[in-house]
């Protein structure tokens, strides 16, 4: 088959599917993306570049859609060049989030389109207004609604949609549910696996070193920001560090902002929380690792005595599934994206997302009750083996692809 993938950040959510297709060596694979350093042998990566950003004269509520329209136009022009070279895909697979797919059927009307629908924005009841510490500005509600312009246009296209969780499908309009198939994402269980021996050895990560007997609390996010509960995590630490002198905390993530607002007055959320808590923290035991390579990231999860995952009602991170797969004792926020994966007291412990005191209690509970931690970690791994197998994900993916291609 001839596959065309489209995602502005190659390979995006398609890494495992593309690697699987390459390994079976039966398909021709093209991937249209913006420039980045990522490459996969067996995949022809075709780069497009946006001609400009949003115009200063465009209404602020419409600027994001202007960029989406530029992407759609640029990707379609890139696809036209590919078509003139003789390539016609059997199926087009891409992410609808940035508008890249909006004009693709003008180039190839016939191939089925399988689009990834990640999130439908709401002004109330989901992420916006969830945290009373950061009340939303009602003046921004029109801009939030406008974020769904691409979603709504994509849902009107002659294509099929996928989304990775039941909760994500539930936040789309009810009339769209029949257009969206829940296709759970998997984990490489061979790579993401428990390694009990790691706990018996010293750990060295950059300038961070841990003795075998020390307790490790871990937290991972793409960026350290409130949407992923960073402020709650930081405010829980004084109580944890005071209660246990053998605890080290490693926080992995960058200083940018992926979701939500930047700190008022500038700077980073890390700087802001350190300023707030500096006199209450033993900073010799709190380590900010920044962004680290995947090998060190997995070693941290495998060594973790308590892994913390917090999020507003928003898209769950891959790191949650990977933490379950390595058998880490997970303490996570009691929010809908998380409760689809974690059953309290069985595969992890749930805690109110915005309550630092309760989080500290949960962390100390896991650190002090070693049989509980082992039981949670073992159940998390069993859950991953039953529900998160990459092989199952790929089988379901290929079944959906075959159904769409056959229907054409």
Describe the structure.
By secondary structure, the chain is an alpha/beta fold. The protein folds into two domains: 2-186 and 390-407, Rossmann fold, CATH 3.40.50; 196-387, Glycogen Phosphorylase B (Rossmann fold). Helices cover 37% and strands 17% of the residues. The chain has 14 helices and 15 strands. Strands 3-2-1-4-5-6-7 form a seven-stranded parallel sheet, sandwiched between helices. Strands 12-11-10-13-14-15 form a six-stranded parallel sheet, with helices on both faces. Helix 3 (104-107) links the parallel strand 4 (91-95) and strand 5. Helix 7 runs parallel beside helix 8. The longest helix is centred in the first third of the chain and has 22 residues, at 63-84. It is globular, with a radius of gyration of 22 Å. The two termini are 14 Å apart. The model has no long low-confidence stretch (mean pLDDT 95).
């Amino acid at each position: 088959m001839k596959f065309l993938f489209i995602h502005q950040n190659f390979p995006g959510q398609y890494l495992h599917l593309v690697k699987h297709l390459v390994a079976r060596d039966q398909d021709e694979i093209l991937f249209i993306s913006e420039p980045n350093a990522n490459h996969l042998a067996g995949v022809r990566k075709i780069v497009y570049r946006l001609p400009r950003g949003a115009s200063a004269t465009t209404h602020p509520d419409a600027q994001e859609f202007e960029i989406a329209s530029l992407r759609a136009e640029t990707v379609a022009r890139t696809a036209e060049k590919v078509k003139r070279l003789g390539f016609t895909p059997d199926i087009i697979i891409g992410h609808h989030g940035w508008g890249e797919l909006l004009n693709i059927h003008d180039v190839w009307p016939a191939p089925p389109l399988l689009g990834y629908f990640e999130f439908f924005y709401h002004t109330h009841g989901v992420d916006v207004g969830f945290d009373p510490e950061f009340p939303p500005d009602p003046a921004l509600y029109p801009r939030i609604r406008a974020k769904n312009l691409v979603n709504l246009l994509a849902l009107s296209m002659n294509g099929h949609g996928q989304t990775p969780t039941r909760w994500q499908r539930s936040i789309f309009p009810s009339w769209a549910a029949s257009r969206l198939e829940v296709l759970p994402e998997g984990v490489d269980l061979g790579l993401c696996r428990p390694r009990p021996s790691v706990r018996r050895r010293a750990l060295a990560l950059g300038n961070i070193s841990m003795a075998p007997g020390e307790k490790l609390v871990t937290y991972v996010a793409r960026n350290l920001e409130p949407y992923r509960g960073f402020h709650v995590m930081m405010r829980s630490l004084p109580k944890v560090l005071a209660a246990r002198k053998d605890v080290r905390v490693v926080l992995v993530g960058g200083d940018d902002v992926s979701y939500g607002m930047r700190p008022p007055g500038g700077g980073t959320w890390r700087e802001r929380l350190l300023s707030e808590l500096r006199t209450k923290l033993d900073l010799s035991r709190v380590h900010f690792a920044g962004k680290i390579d995947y090998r060190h990231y997995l070693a941290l999860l495998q060594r973790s005595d308590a892994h913390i995952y917090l999020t507003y009602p928003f898209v769950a991170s891959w790191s949650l599934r990977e933490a379950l797969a390595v058998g880490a004792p997970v303490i996570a926020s009691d929010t809908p994206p998380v409760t689809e994966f974690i059953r309290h007291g069985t595969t992890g412990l749930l805690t109110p997302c915005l309550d630092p005191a309760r989080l500290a209690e949960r962390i100390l509970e896991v650190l002090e009750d070693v049989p509980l931690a082992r039981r949670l970690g073992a159940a998390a791994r069993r859950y991953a083996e039953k529900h998160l197998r990459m092989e199952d994900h790929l089988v379901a993916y290929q079944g959906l692809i075959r159904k769409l291609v056959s229907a054409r």
